[in-house]
Design brief:
heterodimer, A: 6-stranded mixed beta sheet, B: 125 residues, 7-stranded mixed beta sheet, 4-stranded antiparallel beta sheet, 11 strands
Chain lengths: 108, 125
């Protein structure tokens, strides 16, 4: 079955750039969505279809997807960006919605 | 503005059936444009998709839960529901109901753009 692999944690200083990866076999052929989840809250969609942003999401959030890795990039990181981030795809070969294991981003 | 609200017991005994309902307001569950889904999150762990349903009854389930799960829709009440039988402590989680993206656009169909606030269900005797 299809598996999405994320690093458990990343740490970044304020003002720097954070990159969170999501690995999967030929993930570049799939549409990847990213969610931000803060403690005690429901997830929020921050990037969809690899690189598009929903309205209201800052331009600091961007995404890319190629080969076996999709990446969420957060530029000019702020303290308020500290959260768990999840990637998500639909695996059409098994009709199965999948989430990555999540990455906890800490702002130093 | 679309809102989703989960409701149901917060405590279920082992081997019994977990039942939750999601009430949709600010939009119609009969919309031809969206699937509606259930997602759960065990305490301190990641997100797990349970299944999703279209108003007409088309359903997709997580293969790992399929044998225990039933999702249904009640268009007259603008609600959809989850039943998970033979629960164990491993089913303890926050359960979210959710709306997916525009079904007519393949690359948007399975994103989740609206979430309920989530409800914690504990399985314990």
């Amino acid at each position: 079955s299809y598996v999405l692999t994320q690093p458990p944690s990343v740490s970044v200083a304020p003002g720097q750039t954070a990159r969170i990866t999501c690995g999967g076999h030929n993930i570049g052929t799939k549409s990847v969505h990213w969610y931000q989840q803060k403690p005690g809250q429901a997830p929020v969609l921050v990037v969809y279809d690899d690189s598009d942003r929903p309205s209201g999401i800052p331009e600091r959030f961007s995404g890319s997807n190629s080969g076996n890795t999709a990446t969420l990039t957060i530029s000019r990181v702020e303290a308020g960006d500290e959260a768990d981030y999840y990637c998500q795809v639909w695996d059409s070969s098994s009709d199965h919605l999948l989430f990555g294991g999540g990455t906890k981003m800490t702002v130093l | 503005q679309l809102q989703l609200q989960e409701s149901g017991p917060g405590l279920v005994k082992p081997s019994e059936t977990l039942s939750l309902t999601c009430t949709v307001s600010g939009g119609s569950i009969s919309s031809i444009s969206y699937y509606w889904g259930w997602i759960r999150q065990p305490p301190g762990r990641g997100l797990e998709w349970i299944g999703s349903i279209y108003y007409s009854g088309s359903i997709y389930y997580n293969p790992s839960l399929k044998s225990r799960v039933t999702i249904s829709v009640d268009t007259s009440k603008n609600q959809f529901s989850l039943k998970l039988n033979s629960v164990t402590a491993r089913d303890t989680a926050v359960y979210y109901c959710a709306r997916h993206g525009d079904v007519t656009i393949s690359y948007l169909r399975w994103l989740v753009d609206h979430w309920g606030q989530g409800t914690l269900v504990t399985v314990s005797s």
